[in-house]
Amino acid sequence: DAKTTQPPSMDCAEGRAANLPCNHSTISGNEYVYWYRQIHSQGPQYIIHGLKNNETNEMASLIITEDRKSSTLILPHATLRDTAVYYCIVRSENYGGSQGNLIFGKGTKLSVKP
Amino acid sequence: ETGVTQTPRHLVMGMTNKKSLKCEQHLGHNAMYWYKQSAKKPLELMFVYNFKEQTENNSVPSRFSPECPNSSHLFLHLHTLQPEDSALYLCASSPQSGRTYNEQFFGPGTRLTVL
């Protein structure tokens, strides 16, 4: 089972920041937070991941709370092409075992509207 | 061609047919994965291959038979499927399985319909 809780859907106006929350209250010390997204009828796409520090790349920013029990993915200027299902995944640092696998939940369906 | 490719993109088959799905990655990765995505359900991991060896079978019925002849190619052989097996089948690859920092790259998927 997925170890994360996300709202099933969210709307965002084009050009505004999209803030997608994720709860992972049972996260353990060696588990990372990963974000993927899946645009309709395509395979999932990696966005970003982090352990405890905030992370930023060309796609998004990841803010992880100090207790690591929740995080927020931020798309700074959402476009219509960002409409997708966004998955927050907790993944173990495990060398060769199944705990390192990606376990997808239902994600958040983000709709960016003009 | 770059990334992860899957063929065919769409497949319709009867319950008595035998068919195969093909996945190819051009990323130099050593791990490959099969996932199943049924309508309105989360992605389910089916099989994991690491350096051509199967390291995970997630209780998948034997009517699904994977094959990994080398690190670049992965097949899913289908035999005597049921209508409930209709789904999007996704292939992914990563530098190595089970390790962090190794994000998985997904193909576009094969949309399978079993009649």
Describe the structure.
The complex is a heterodimer of chains A (114) and B (115). In chain A, a hairpin with a 6-residue loop joins strand 3 (31-38) and strand 4. In chain A, 0% of the residues lie in helices and 46% in strands. Chain A is mainly beta. In chain A, the strands form two sheets. A five-stranded mixed β-sheet of chain A has the order 1-9-8-3-4, with no helix packed on it. A four-stranded antiparallel β-sheet of chain A has the order 2-7-6-5, with no helix packed on it. Chain A has strands spanning 9-13, 18-23, 31-38, 45-50, 55-56, 61-64, 70-75, 84-92, 108-113. Chain A contains no helices and nine strands. Chain A is globular, with a radius of gyration of 14 Å. In chain B, the strands form two sheets. In chain B, strands 2, 4, 5, 6, 9, 10 and 11 form a seven-stranded mixed β-sheet that branches. Chain B has a four-stranded antiparallel β-sheet with strand order 1-3-8-7, with no helix packed on it. Chain B has strands at 4-7, 10-13, 18-25, 31-37, 44-50, 53-57, 64-70, 73-79, 87-94, 105-106, 110-114. With 115 residues, chain B is mostly beta strands. The mean pLDDT of chain B is 91. The chains are: A mainly beta (114), B mainly beta (115). The A-B interface holds A 2, 32, 34, 41-46, 49, 91-107 and B 4, 42-45, 48, 50, 55-56, 88, 90-92, 97-101, 103-109, 111.
